[in-house]
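Blinded run. Sample ID left blank on purpose so nobody reads anything into the name before looking at the predicted structure. Input follows.
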Amino acid sequence: MSAPTRRRRWLTICAITASAALVAIPAGASSSGDSSPFGPRVLGQLAAERAQSVGALAPSLKGEDDGDDGNEADEIAEGADQYAEARTSPGVVAPGAYGAAWQSLNKLPNSGGSWRNVTDLPYNSDDPRYRDVDSNSSGGSGNVTGRMAAMAADDDGYVYAGSAGGGVWRSRSGGGHWQAISDRLPAQSTGALALDGTGRLWLGTGEATTNADAYLGSGVYVLTDPHRGTFSSRARVGGDELESTTVHQLRFGGGKVWAATSKGVWSHSTKTLKGAWKLEFAPNPEFLPGGSEADDPDAPYKNIANDIAIDPKNPDKVVLAVGWRSGDDYNGFYTKSAGGTWTRITSGLGDLPTDPDGVGNVTFARSADGSRYYAIDQSPEQLNTNPDSGLEGFYVSKSGSPNGPWTKIADYQGLAASGSALTSSGYMPGVQAWYNQFLTVDPSDPQHVYAGLEEVYESKDGGGTWSTVGPYWNFGFPCWSIDPAKQTGDCNQTTHSDQHGVAIGRYHGKSFLYVGNDGGVYKRPLGGRQDASGHATDWTSLNDGTIDTLQYYSVGIGKDLDHGGVSVTGGLQDNGQSVLRSNDRVMGSNFGGDGGDTLTDPANGCNIAEEYVYLTIQVTQNCAVNDGSWIDDAGKATSYGVAPADNATGEARFIAPLAADAKSPSTWIAGGRHVWVQTHGYAIRSGDEWTSVYDLGAGHTATAVAASGGKVYAAWCGPCNNQGFARGISVGNADGTGWHDITLPVDGTVPNRYLSGFAIDPKDADHVFLTVNGFSRQWTEGPGAGVGHVFESKDGGTTWKNVSKNLPDVPTDSAVVTPNGGLAVGTDLGVVYRAPGRTTWQRVGDLPAVAVLQLKLGPDGSTLYAATHGRGIYSIKVRDCG
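Blinded prediction complete.
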């Protein structure tokens, strides 16, 4: 397979799970040793990977019989779905698991210590200091933060941004100077935001982008005074009907609020928050909780709703867009018949498809005067047979009725010709239309439309012509250069790629467009300027550092030899690797794309190894500082691709484990199918320098590795989903001797769930702690789920003891033994700590309900750092943990 691009993560199909996350299915990846200009970022390489994936993951399209009753859940490729597998396997998780865990966590005693937000300052993706071969600096996105799933804005200058994993934020000044307003809720994942006619702000929790790290929610909430108030769990609408769902859209009409969710379409009165939600329509109700097929592994795929269109002239006329984006027999548009039952629309929509193969993820938008309806449609058939795009098209109903007739006004070829950056075969507009969609209409002009896919498009004539006002990036345009004196050459700033949320609001009498994407929030004047290529000249990033929703997978800390103090780095969802030197007022980005695990030399914070995905590892010994001169002289590159062989064969997990020996930082351990060791530290220059010291076995992939004094622990799974899930532990030495598989007893001493991490006692390598993800058998309906999340061995892993005690039943992601002998554990809802000599746990500080995917100690051991997947990196003194 060709060298991977660092920039793109979501290349193929994904799948929803029944619990914590939604699963992504990527194409394979390989070592990025290409030294050609922007070799890892070349769209041609993206296209090659995309092309290889098409067909391999074909859904159950009409006429095919694969024995799974029209669902592709059991065809999902091994890969990025591990984020969800970790929380669901070996079975399906019952609704309410996270709510119960949050209540349990809040009942723990609190350490009283306070966390410090390390990353609450601007993060410049175009920082001119870091224009090395594996950076995206100069692409034009500017300041970024974590993924924004939804937006809302009013005419008084108030803007609301709903993040994927870091809650809802408010600006009182037309964007910027943000304040978190949902920290008291048990779910920080946003699916939808909407202002109703009285000015109330409605929040649907649970991100519905169906990607690998999207969390389920706890329902719908209302904020009566959004200008001044904050969300409270007491303001939840209805009961627990929408707990453990995702909410794709909230729409209003006829005195009702309608919710398109992962469990069908529901409605509730807008006049009162009391009373249960009404299930309006579920295409396969037997798969809902309490139904006869609720325990089926395919249940999460069977009732997905995407949007609701309400006729402005008659709110009793409603059209539902329902369907799983990769294809199922129930996909389509539905409306109420005269008898009051919902029936599929099989004809009469004009150009808008009615066949299940042509209806996937759909977004509607209505003009303010009711004269027009617009729609975006992603096609399951296109997604799985067309290597260029999954987009069926953009459409307009000039009657203003959602029943049409609809006319097609754009396809991916036309959008590619509108100034798009995505013109290479295999990666064109709509290639990720299942993940990227927004649509809105200028309130004062029904023919002025904005649409979001990977890029932002604008039409001023009702879809007759389009301009790519927010291109994917500026690489490849004639105006671009890597000149460190400029942000993006002579190009204007663009937005970050991958669009999700949109709103139109006014500030100081002027109307603005607000977009939310994988890089945060951006705005431009509603009727803004364009250059000759149709690109906007007036985008402004609103990611000013007061909004920190960065989604870290990892954190690394090392001494800053140039400035004193420490340098802090971390790998991020779609925002590369951040680097924060001790004297910085702005973070920089020295590696692009998705950033997975990271290693940072405790003695020198500019010695860094960063993983992309599938063990694609880059290393630098100068923080990847570079002025871009490598583009003319390849010998001036200062970062190097050093992936072990499991990267090329695809035998590593999407975010694969990487660790340094605690006693010998030059000895690294990497886990794929094999346990890999290299002993050259940050001086490694080639993937050939890795040695396989143990083969975990065909179909097995490492989920965690750790080493101390030459002793190595490796956990694995395979299969890793709920179709025959299995896990194990192997132990041996870094020199390749003494390797053996641990016999884990069938009595459930160590549950049959995902093994997420090890923490080795620095005083005794045979004394080790194991963290276990997922939920215990109370919630997980799968074989051997067992109980407990933290286990201890004092004999090198031969025997284990459950030491969970009063630890909440919550997915557990990482652990570290503190210098005083305490044990800190990162969970999906924050950090807990067991003090030396104690057997019970307490909560560390009061982080919001955010996943802590990795914990590490600073160079002197006195400070604990937490990589959160939605609220940046935090630190706390070990002495304040309890």
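Unblinding after everyone has recorded impressions. Residues 43-53 form the longest helix (11 residues).
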